[in-house]
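I am still learning, so would you mind making up any protein sequence you like and the tokens describing how it folds?
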Amino acid sequence: MLELELEQRKNIKFLVKLGKSGNEIRQMLVQVYGDNAMKKTEVYKWVKCFSEGREGVTDEERSGRPATSRTEENIANSPQIVRENLRLTVRSIAEQMNIDRETVRKILTEGLDMRKVCAKMVPKDMGLPIRP
């Protein structure tokens, strides 16, 4: 889907350079891409950007908190913390590791293939506690 969107942005940039209006550009995109054409507001946003001199068609980096909690180091440290105390909650593990609970839950369930059994995190395959 991203490739199709980038292709449309390149077309918008080209058509802006030809002097086409936002409405004309939107109609052309619908004619070519049908249901997969960009929404009108998105087309107008890019028409404005390219009209103001923007050259790049890719999204610029966004500000905000980077997704750095799910690192190899945190994934590697998680089993050790769980082994030390099988009764730890996701919340207490998150506090120990200083990362959010949802990240800890994903590390345990998706990264380490564990599941919760009677408030204990255990390997999914056997349902047995982890042995140190």
Q: What stands out?
A: Strands lie at 114-117, 120-123. Residues 2-17 form the longest helix (16 residues).
